[in-house]
């Protein structure tokens, strides 16, 4: 007789212990979705480690141990995410305060009057720090098309900044040149 059928054994273990494990994780999670995720991860581990699962009643205890570790890992990950969110919130608050002091909301208003395509393009350059070649890959177009679109978007932003009554010299000679440039797109 050969080795036991892993699929058949897994199905037996799953059917025998699913209700107990569901109750176990449900009592230890905040939502049905969290319970479902933890249960799925537990049974995924069981599938990968079929050879490690003991026979009989000990299989249920082994699964409880796996579920316990899955839940602990999720709690640790949530703690890390929460700490990161707190830190980012603090950094963004400082950034937002600096931004408001620097432009009195004029730059933001000028930016928001641009077409969504222009805002996205300028954001990819300024906020994400992507190069023209990288933006071309993101947008699925040629580098030349990105250069042209970016030039036009910058020109439109410069016009919006000027319409906002902001001192264009504050943004550099390039901004002044873009405003003085031809009619463009």
From TrEMBL:
Positions of the RNA polymerase sigma-70 region domain: 13-81
Domain named RNA polymerase sigma factor 70 region 4 type: residues: 107-157
Gene3D superfamilies in the record: 1.10.1740.10, Winged helix-like DNA-binding domain superfamily/Winged helix DNA-binding domain (1.10.10.10)
Name of the protein in its database record: RNA polymerase sigma-70 factor (ECF subfamily)
GO molecular function: DNA binding; sigma factor activity
Keyword Heme: no
Keywords, alphabetical: Sigma factor, Transcription, Transcription regulation
GO biological process assignments: DNA-templated transcription initiation
InterPro entries: RNA_pol_sigma-70-like, RNA_pol_sigma-70_dom, RNA_pol_sigma70_r2, RNA_pol_sigma70_r4_t2, RNA_pol_sigma_r2, RNA_pol_sigma_r3/r4-like, WH-like_DNA-bd_sf
Entry similarity comment: Belongs to the sigma-70 factor family. ECF subfamily.
Signal peptide: none
């Amino acid at each position: 007789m050969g080795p036991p059928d892993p699929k058949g054994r897994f199905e037996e273990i799953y059917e025998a212990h699913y209700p107990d494990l569901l109750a176990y994780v449900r009592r230890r999670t905040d939502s049905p979705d969290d319970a479902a995720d933890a249960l799925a991860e537990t049974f995924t581990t069981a599938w990968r480690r079929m050879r490690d699962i003991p026979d009989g009643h000990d299989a249920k205890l082994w699964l409880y141990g796996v579920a316990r570790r899955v839940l602990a890992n999720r709690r640790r990950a949530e703690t890390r995410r929460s700490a990161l969110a707190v830190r980012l919130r603090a950094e963004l608050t400082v950034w937002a305060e600096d931004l408001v002091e620097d432009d009195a909301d004029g730059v933001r208003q000028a930016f928001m009057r641009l077409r969504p395509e222009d805002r996205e393009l300028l954001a990819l350059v300024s906020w994400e720090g992507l190069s023209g070649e990288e933006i071309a890959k993101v947008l699925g177009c040629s580098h030349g098309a990105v250069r042209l679109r970016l030039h036009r978007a910058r020109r439109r932003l410069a016009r919006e900044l000027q319409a906002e009554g902001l001192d264009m010299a504050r943004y550099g000679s390039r901004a002044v040149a873009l405003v003085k440039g031809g009619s463009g797109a």
